[in-house]
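To start, one record:
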Amino acid sequence: MTSPTHNDAQTLDEVRVRYLVTRAALRAAKAMTSPGLKPEQRLATLMECHGTMLAARGPSSPLPFAEFRKALRGELAGLLPDGVSALDLGGLLVVDPDGQVTEDAFDLDLEQRILLHTLRKLDKDAGAISDRELQSEIEQETAYALLRKQGTQNAYEAGRSDLIRHPAGPVDQLRKLKLPMGVVDFYEEIPYGSVHHGWWFPCPVCRWPMRLTLRKNAGNIVGSARCWHTPHADMGAAYLFRPTSDEKAPELLPEPSPARPSGREAVLYPDTETLPEALPTAGHKALARGIWRYTTVPGLPELALFDRLKECGLKVDLWPGLDAYDLLVELAPKRRKKVSFRVDVKDYTSVTTLAKLIHAQEGDKGGAEWLVVPDYRARQVPLLSGVCERYGMRAVTASEFGELVCNQAGVSWT
């Protein structure tokens, strides 16, 4: 098929099919793996998802119900109909060896919904996708709109910073945050997949509840705690713990952490050496997953860049114009005119979905000229650079951007 960045009709068709396939597979996998569902509820959901899958694949690609259930344990790309390229779905599992829905499947589903919601807002044909199905993106926009309604830049910055720095915690502390009531409502009970006998662990990187699973190891049951965001787990937010059978709090077991990077990447690298302590689920809440994933997670490098560039003595504005873009960096080099950098920070698991989003918006909707991705997304930069170049943008990693700006300002990034 023609590249999606060159043919809008092909793009919309492929986006719609991938979304329907991913959404059906994810819902079916959650029905298969979620505890507490009655058999008739599980079967009804699976049958509904099978119908959605058949609609996405079309009459020329039949898929019997038994094969559909079996395929949910394999690669997601295997569920696509002939003629639709796998792209980021290649090698991606919906259900992992522990029988849990994978983090990447959640991310891919949310990112495709963001793209479809954007296409709808741009009056492009995104197909018959309901508002309910796009709820995660709508919730995120609602949260931002409520923050903007406070009317001042300082209030917006304070509220959004709170969503990034405090994605979970004690209810009495969350009530003290500088958030409108409607935004506070996006804090929910601790997700069941993050709970062990009434306890949960915050990720040392993002502070959101980590995913807890139990597995057999040499005849013993061992607990695993890891951040739902795979890059955070790869940085060291992944631990073991001894399961408890009573109300006693479990304790994490220290594991060797990956080596810290050197040079410019060391500046923004988080601390994962301190072991998180178990917290009770009673009296604690956490942000809805979609808002955590696409506000808190990308907000971490936004705030890290902001804080570091301020430490370097540079003039930096955060979410200027009530979030026209993420950062405005202004330099006034001697004997030269003022230089400004308008920055948008993105953290997408699917680089092709992000590339399509940039193409659909014909660049950045707020006028950013720099697309910055976290250092752990460095492999995405070559593809993003090709798309960004068409719209007068540049794609770089966070540390690369920080070093570049500091060099121009004549100060040290490291």
Residues 8-133 form one domain. The CA atoms of residues 123 and 336 lie 43 Å apart. The first strand starts at residue 168 and ends at 170.
